[in-house]
Amino acid sequence: MTTEPDPTLLRSSAGDEWNSEQVDAALATTLDSLDDALNYRNWIADLAQPYLEGPLLEVGAGHGTFTEVFVELADATAVEPGDYAAGLLSERFKDDDRVTVVNGIVDDVDLDDSFGSAVMINVLEHIADDFGALKSVWDRLQPGGHLVLWVPAFQLLYSDFDTKLGHERRYNRRGLEDLVERAGFTVVKSGYVNAPGWFSWLLMVRLLSIEPTSPVTVGIFDRFIVPIVRGIERWVRPPFGQSVFLAARKPLH
What we know:
253 residues; globular; Rossmann fold; alpha/beta; single chain
């Protein structure tokens, strides 16, 4: 299963622009399936929660699936480059003063805004200049503030569906750690998540070219598989997985 809260390709800090409308259309079905996959969403959000402090910067907020959870923890600035998705965000949170929607990229957020934490869920893999994007986040974090990342794992699993979603790459844990450390962060925690998903993605998506967006498939996975896998991986750290979770900290000095 894939989660794509960000329905657009992001511009890199170098100024490259992407066709956000085209990507939004390609991800619409996936985004809709995520809205119904509450167990999976909550799994990711619960992993992130210990590292989130306000004010919170959410990069690539998409349609607000995770914003809805994060805003219960802290006031949030939801950054979204796609006009259509940003419009949905604004409508979704129009009566919620805790959420500020920015239709743009991280560089469009004022440097005077100093955030306690930042989160990017299935966003970094869309950005050509991922290092530049991390540096832009660094510039907007308070000393001691945390960065939380969730990205797809293993280039071996890269499929036509990844291309359709606008993925530049997939990551391994060590490579992601090195990238984050080069950007100036200290890694606090990292690891693979959803080991069974590695096999299902390899077989269904990579080898059989089946797109994992069927409501039936997503419903079965979310209702029956996620609680079991989550329970096991709470105690057993898998050596591989469908995704990488990473939390890092901006040093105090």
